[in-house]
Amino acid sequence: MKRKEFTELALGLTLGGLLSPLLSVGKQTENFYDKSVLSADGLPNMLPANLKQMVKNTLKAEFKTVNTDWDGTIQIEGLLRFANRGYKEGLDYSKKWFNFHVEHDSKLTDEQYYKQYEGPKARILRDGPLTFVIYSANLGVAFPVHELYKQTRDLKAKQVCFDVADAILHYAARDRFGMLAHDDYNYMDFAIPDTAYWATRANAIAASLCTDIAVANMYWKQSIYQLNQGIEYFLDVKKGIVRTGLFKGEPAKTYWCRSQGWLIWAISGLLRYLPKTHPEFKRAAAAMKVIADGTVKYQSKNGGLHVLVDDPSSPEEVTGIAMVVASVKEGMRNGWLPPIYNDMCNKGWEFIKKSVDEKGVVHNTYTGWAVTAEEKKVNLMDEKFRGFVPGIIMLAADEMTR
């Protein structure tokens, strides 16, 4: 978006011309509960046995050991997606997880808190119900907590959604392009699409919960701005795929599988709450379509995406396609995308199902990240368990079994 266009949009928001539909947006609950489509275990009949086992494996971990970084929060969100459809065990577990961290984390020293997750150290905020760190992946705690609020109306959960958005607005660093920094220290070396996801979705959630016009204006403005910057700097429109990131301010030379997922998830994270009449809706949906078309073009013969999407010599990988499938299926279901991607989604779903063994363990996973992908270290497959892996698969499985 050009500066002039964004200034005009911001002015319109300030004047309240666009805020009426924004403040009345969407449903805060989205209940799919239907006993006729559930098995005795409370999970969808359409969910294969190996993926049911994967979900149940999540419950085997003591909830106290599941952190509030992305490794933990995406698993909780996955459980809550199924809880919204009747999976009571998932809701019970998630409530225990949230209440534990509310009570426990504020009592930790900084060093004790840092030991809970693998990412970089950053400032720790202790003002609200939940103590959290402003390393970007930790800001994703707002996502399962929002799901929890919708199902329980726990006001502490609602407040955490505002606290995370406020942290992005007022405390978190920015890179020189105005995008949310990865953490307190790495905002000059690189910028990657996952930060667009954390910032866009967290602020859209806060805006959707807010009844104060002036404050909602602030959240919407930030959500839209962060997404537009991500689209501008990461999406290669000509190739139809997403760059791994920016490194030293220059576009990446690679197109990493999960970068496709990060940016399309950022788009979904806005479109869930933005009314179709909003002037930014078509732009975001158009970017989603570019990524969907690119996925059709580059999808591997078995249904995955290659670790480096445009390099068929790199391994076929499951998490990237799962992220894209989850958003594209949601996009078709909600009318954000035309219903022309079912073949791509079904092919991806088959690859996902074949990538989970009978014990519920996920394979074909790239366990490196953006920096290692840009270094073309493509064989970092299934090297160690990371909680985000089953979490991603759960979100795709939720969409594919509706």
From TrEMBL:
InterPro entries: 6-hairpin_glycosidase_sf, 6hp_glycosidase-like_sf, Glyco_hydro_88, PolySaccharide_Degr_Enz. GO terms for molecular function: hydrolase activity. The keyword Hydrolase applies. SUPFAM superfamilies: Six-hairpin glycosidases. GO terms for biological process: carbohydrate metabolic process. Keywords: Hydrolase. The keyword Hydrolase applies. This is Glycosyl hydrolase. It comes from the Bacteria. The lineage of its organism: Bacteria, Pseudomonadati, Bacteroidota, Sphingobacteriia, Sphingobacteriales.
